Amino acid sequence: MNYAENILETIGNTPMVKLNKLTAELPCLVLAKYETFNPGNSVKDRMALQMIEDAEADGRLKPGGTIIEGTSGNTGMGLALAAIIKGYKCIFVMADKQSKEKVDILKAVGAEVVVCPTNVEPTDPRSYYSVSKRLGEETPNSWYVNQYDNPSNAKAHYKSTGPEIWEQTDGKVTHFVVGVGTGGTISGVGKYLKEQNPNVKIWGIDTYGSVFKKYHETGIFDEKEIYPYVTEGIGEDILPLNVDFSIIDGFTKVTDKDAAVYTQRLSKEEGMFLGNSAGAAIKGVLQLKEHFKAEDVVVVLFHDHGSRYVGKMYNDEWMKKMGYID
Ligand SMILES: Cc1ncc(COP(=O)(O)O)c(C=O)c1O
Predict the structure, then answer these.
(1) Alpha carbon distance 214, 253 (integer Å)
(2) What is the H or E stretch that residue 96 is in?
(3) Of residues 44, 102, 213, 253, which has the active-site annotation?
(4) Ligand 1 pocket, residues with Cβ under 6 angstroms
(5) How far is the CA of 183 from the centre of ligand 1 (A)?
(6) 188 in a domain, yes or no?
(7) 46 in Cβ contact with 304 (< 8 Å)
(8) Domain check: are 191 and 312 in the same one?
(9) Which residues contact 64 (CB under 8 A, 6 or more apart)?
(10) Are strands 89-95 and 175-179 parallel, antiparallel or unpaired?
(11) What is the CATH number of the domain that holds 82?
(12) pLDDT tens digits for 66-108?
């Protein structure tokens, strides 16, 4: 018999899938690291489990404890799955711009969800950063995860996602392209790949309304770069410790409209029913066309599943209302 002892053992070892139609204009092979095959349907299962295991190991998380986190949904799902198996409670804090499906999904796996306003300063006591910190301080026997600054986040990708990409491409990967939020994925994978071959180029996908690209290029944290945006999962108005700017070769920004339109195109043209940051990532790959040569092997990582976006990017009424399609 061949079976996993529990659902957590099915995390990782996701497939790599070639893109065929959307990337036809590019000279090179483009492969998707397809993370929806994780049990929580996103790459975040990997880092959620690593963060919990590291917190258990050094006593930050104790038996029967409550896990508290600010999450746009995917990290929460990973944490919730691990909490069920390991016997913890979860309270998650979310910004109100996230899709309703994400809130419902977290409740479905037993978590308590607190929703906060999106358009307030990170330092505002109502912001989801502040509320999650406060709950962490007030709740007895709790552990505040802080995926932004928790080094176990990038470590998970250094230990699993990076080596998988290296092995699946037989060491031939030349570029890694991925959306950046907490920075865990790009930093962990990027560090591992650059250690194997320093010539591998690491590109981050950013969004308009986020500070990353300008900070990387100038070293300036420009508050004028910060404004509300629609794209989910990537971009920040803070500099998380998990973003290791030194291993990133460049950022390209993708508009909200392009990210939404390309999310639909991935589904309709490649049969890849994926989340909004996958649309941004593949459009970003196309924007980087001039950097690729025929012999290159470009790996783009797709973070999460389309089911979390059926009320938005997969809803034509919503797309029309936003002015993204006619
Ligand atoms: C859908 C989605 N895409 C991209 C990202 C960014 O990944 P990372 O936080 O590892 O930078 C996240 C993380 O929150 C996400 O949920």
Answers:
(1) 10
(2) none
(3) 44
(4) 44, 72, 74, 179-186, 233-234, 275, 277, 303-304
(5) 8
(6) yes
(7) no
(8) yes
(9) 87, 88, 89, 141
(10) unpaired
(11) 3.40.50.1100
(12) 999 988 689 999 999 999 999 999 999 988 877 787 888 899 9
